[in-house]
Amino acid sequence: MAAYRRGVLIGNWNEDACLEEDRLRDFMHKRERGELLIQKINKLQDNLLKKIQLSVSKDGFVHFGDTVMLLNPDNKSSVENFPGACGSLTLAINLDEISMYSAESLQAPCGVSAVKSVDPMGRNTFCILSVDGGAVGEPIRFGQNFGLGTTGGFSDQMLYLASDHKSFIRFAKKSYLQQVFLTDELSYLTCWQATFLDPQLRLEYEGFPVPANSKMIITHCHTNRSLAVPRNFWTRSYFGKEYEIICHTYLDSHKAEEDKNYWEIVTGNPSDEDGTMINRPVPLPGGIRKNEFREET
């Protein structure tokens, strides 16, 4: 078989050259407009992981309009029963790989999950919304309806935390219990209430302001089931291993909610703009903070 020199053109060389020029031209056009897949992923990821400053509570209560985190605190039962799921978890937006590769922004409906990161960022911060005419800045109260909205770090949209009764086509993927998701419409499905932790004192605390950074129960108004992190069901997302969020009330032998239903509404640290109240040192007797203790020499 005869060999050709490097300068010899064979086949549809002219068509191949024109096709390569078109591909390069199309690539340059998409890059200028930010339409390349890697650019879309980077933009979405930058917004979801962007640092967010939480609202600082001056009176110790949670208010309408506050930017907060919802935290499921660490507990002894999770360490004993699920060693890999120990530690505090925060409620966050959950995007699978298909959504990350196909969407330029958050699309409804969107999933949620519990993540181990307790640093405030676009995907795990929420805004307390009024659904019954309460003014921004007023404290929310036990038994009062409110909404939870998140922008995911974007400035032109907001999704709302919602839930609905379990059905044959709508249920949590792992536990098969009541699903929790994000939607773009405010409705009766997006209404929640804060309930006092001790069931024997709930009637007495009805109507009192909700304290920030304290354990409470968050209940879905339409289904009367509580927000929960079972910790024994995990999902794989674009960001790694995360835990399933559901609406289900776990009761112990005393008819009180278990720690799977415990939540804290975390606010910002007034002494650190990028910090939260969970990172604030715990004061010890005598005015000495825990991390400021020094041995006497």
Range of helix content: 10-25%
Q: Which structural class do you get from the secondary structure elements?
A: alpha+beta
Number of strands: 16
Radius of gyration: 25 Å
Instruction: Give the termini separation.
Output: 91 Å
Question: Would you give an account of this structure?
Answer:
With 297 residues, the protein is α+β, with helices and mostly antiparallel strands. Helix content is 16%, strand content 26%. It has five helices and 16 strands. Strands 1, 2, 3, 4, 5, 6, 7, 8, 9, 10, 11, 12, 13 and 14 form a 14-stranded antiparallel beta sheet that branches. Strands 15-16 form a two-stranded antiparallel ribbon. A hairpin with a 2-residue loop joins strand 15 and strand 16 (272-276). The protein is elongated and about 95 Å long.
Describe the structure concisely:
The chain is of the alpha+beta class and 297 residues long.
Secondary-structure blueprint:
Elements: H1 13-33, H2 37-48, E1 67-72, H3 76-81, E2 89-94, H4 97-102, E3 110-115, E4 126-130, E5 145-150, E6 159-163, E7 178-183, E8 192-195, H5 202-205, E9 215-220, E10 225-228, E11 234-237, E12 240-244, E13 246-247, E14 262-266, E15 268-269, E16 272-276
Antiparallel strand pairs: 1-2, 1-4, 1-14, 2-3, 3-7, 3-12, 4-5, 5-6, 5-8, 6-7, 7-13, 8-9, 9-10, 9-14, 10-13, 11-12, 15-16
